């Protein structure tokens, strides 16, 4: 390439022309120490992890070829082994030993097997199915991680192709609502942009997914990549640069088309672009990069990078993308032609197999539908036969039932004639009963009138007994007053009689004095005993009179209770007769208040309670 010149910094290593005895001794000791012959490496692809034991002398190409052979990859020029170093990343160089590069010192050393360069047209350049699958997984992850900007509409469409590649054709009987709940299909920015639930997003994705029926997995992944390659940030590696020493911050983008200059806040639309076909030379000196256009009339573009490691990475990507750019515009090599032919044959074979499978599937579905139709028809005929048998049985049962009904009708006719005769007899009996009922009604009215008269008499009797009770109460109070007066009179007699007897009837004292006092005492005691006996007799007589009156009142009270109970019983019987009678109108008896009937009884009860 005449127009493509690369200037690399030249580093001179100064070596000593002689060694000291001490250094020679140390080298001898170092040779005695046993060095490990192998080291462990862990390689992480987009869908697997692998571990290898590598020899110390291996170069980057040896490890890279081992990984490609393990996964069956032949389109190796798109991929590389990436590792992390400090705050950035780097790609493993194939021409240098692995341990001589700035790889991590961990054990095992971790590398990521990723696409380093991207094709311009995925459908033409990606031949192998494994290559398409690895690109599909990487681009899908970049879209979900928002490293590649994607609109919500395109995100939903891409998600439907990803679902088709994972689950195959849509089957509503198998793919129930919620089957995408565990899958990450949309960027978080898209999910937060709209106020929609997960079920609503799944419904939108499923609507597109149902239209992809018949697309195989590799075709769905290729359709995914065809849409993704039209996105602005697809396949672009961004680096922070400054245009001059005054630190005007910019972004440098390197992709399969060329170099692009962006504002830091906009990665979609570049301010300036340099296609590979229009670049004559790229060079860098420490932190300064120079882009010389092929047209000498155009100005040379210079920019600055902050780190030497980043400058080397930019230059490495520029060289690789430019080589692929030139390679695409040449005739394919024999290896690529063989790969494309094999891939074409493989696709044709798979297409035939899919057609055969689709035809067999269609025939199977038609056979299943015919089987289902025959089973349905069989079930229908069985149902019709069952219904016919049931109808025949029902007709036979109906004939028997009609015969039984005819016989029952004859018996019912006889029974009705018998019942008509009985009804006539019952009518005559009811007429006689009606006559008896009239007589009973008359007797009942007479009894009601007698009961009314008896109730009036009882009321009068209760009032009379109430008055007698008042008189008895008055007599009792008078007896108590007489008793109290008698007691008072007795006390007065006792007080007045004793001193008079002592004054007028005391004889002259005898000579000896003892007999006189005895006689006077006996006289006083005799008088006192006589008065007490008389008073006791009067009290006893009054008590007996009181007891007789009380007994007489109790007898009257019992008699009154029995009369009231009999009156209540007659009233209840009269009510029962009234309910048992036919529904005819009778004159209401005069109402006697209950309070008047029981007032005398209540008064006497209160009196006896007080006594």
From TrEMBL:
Residues 39-329 form the FERM domain. InterPro entries: Band_41_domain, ERM, ERM_C_dom, ERM_FERM_C, ERM_helical, Ez/rad/moesin-like, FERM/acyl-CoA-bd_prot_sf, FERM_2. Pfam families: ERM_C (PF00769), ERM_helical (PF20492), FERM_C (PF09380), FERM_M (PF00373), FERM_N (PF09379). GO terms for molecular function: actin binding. It is a peripheral membrane protein. A 1,2-diacyl-sn-glycero-3-phospho-(1D-myo-inositol) binds at residues 93-96, 312. It comes from the Eukaryota. GO terms for cellular component: cell projection; cytoplasm; nucleus; plasma membrane. Residues 543-573 form a coiled coil. The keyword Glycoprotein does not apply. It is found in: Cell membrane; Cell projection; Cytoplasm; Nucleus. Residues 461-483 are annotated as: Disordered. Keywords: Cell membrane, Cell projection, Coiled coil, Cytoplasm, Membrane, Nucleus, Phosphoprotein, Ubl conjugation. This is Merlin. It comes from Albula goreensis.
